[in-house]
Design brief:
The chain is an all-alpha fold and 101 residues long. The chain is 47% helix and 0% strand.
Length: 101
């Protein structure tokens, strides 16, 4: 994996940093989450070439707090036949209404 790099055309998925600064192993959770949330078909194909299904499934199974679209997380939950608890789904998805007052 050391020789693999994120293609420059995927920079738009990682707007908060430069892709050159991302480490495929150390930043695995962030990279997988971003691609699953925002990526297009070509991005997903790249993701599944770089990471194993087990690694990707693990990120979906242990979603980071507040970074997922609800529909996207539900989709990958179905694809990987996971049964994430409702409370975990709530914490993992961002909801702008939660902050509007």
């Amino acid at each position: 994996m050391a020789s693999l790099k994120i293609p420059k055309k995927m920079q738009w998925l990682f707007w908060s940093c430069k892709i050159e600064d991302l480490d495929l192993e150390k930043d695995k959770h962030y990279i997988i989450s971003q691609v699953l949330n925002y990526g297009i078909w070509k991005d997903l194909k790249w993701l599944f070439k770089v990471y194993s299904e087990k690694e990707i499934k693990n990120v979906v199974k242990n979603p980071a707090r507040g970074v997922w679209f609800r529909d996207v997380l539900n989709f990958w939950n179905l694809i990987f036949a996971l049964k994430l608890k409702k409370k975990l789904l709530e914490k993992a998805t961002f909801n702008l209404r939660r902050y509007a007052k």
